[in-house]
Write a structure and sequence with these properties.
5 helices; mainly alpha
């Protein structure tokens, strides 16, 4: 039975970590006939470890982008709420102060998917601007809602980019782990053959 560590099949990150004992055990054994394979295993281990670190970094960026989007969504909801109150103060309906400017009530607007919310806010702001009857506080609330919607749009774009980066990093890491596993298998085969 070989004293070389078996790679863990449960997760790619633990497989990357499993290569260090393999490389360490191999370096203490007589590996004259398998020096080339050992070099490949060591190089593949280093590359896999680097790919795993890149994946973790991409996942951290994605996590931060998700958290930022949640914060911006709250800010956008607050801006829409402030606009609702400003329109009510201007004398519009308590039930649906947006009725004059479009088909959506405030509650319906805030339950749309985020990308649709920002478009609906843009349409609402444009309709309020065309009406020319808004008070100064309503115009300020309208501009705040528009800025909040722009920030959410930008955060959504950043989130898409971050998700794509995580996908690419994971794909790269997984492909490298397959190459590493093949290199370990080839090394073990060569080692067993030379120990006979």
């Amino acid at each position: 039975m070989s004293n070389v560590a078996q790679p863990c099949k449960t997760s790619p990150s633990t497989m990357v970590g499993a290569g260090a004992p393999t490389s360490a055990a191999a370096s203490t054994a007589d590996t004259r006939s398998s020096q080339a394979h050992l070099a490949v295993v060591g190089g593949a281990q280093l590359i896999c470890s680097t790919a795993q670190k890149r994946l973790r970094a991409a996942e951290e960026i994605l996590s931060a982008a998700q958290a930022r989007l949640v914060e911006l969504q709250v800010e956008q909801d607050e801006a829409v709420d402030a606009l609702v109150h400003a329109l009510i103060d201007d004398g519009l309906s308590h039930c649906n102060p947006f009725a004059t400017f479009g088909p959506l009530a405030p509650r319906a607007l805030t339950t749309l998917p985020l990308a649709e919310q920002t478009k609906a806010i843009d349409q609402l702001v444009a309709a309020i601007q065309r009406s020319k009857s808004a008070s100064k506080p309503t115009l300020q609330a309208m501009q705040a809602a528009k800025r909040a919607a722009r920030a959410v749009d930008q955060a959504l774009a950043h989130l898409d980019t971050s998700q794509a980066a995580v996908g690419r990093a994971r794909h790269t890491r997984d492909a490298l782990i397959q190459k590493w596993a093949a290199a370990v298998a080839a090394f073990r085969f060569t080692r067993r053959r030379s120990n006979r």
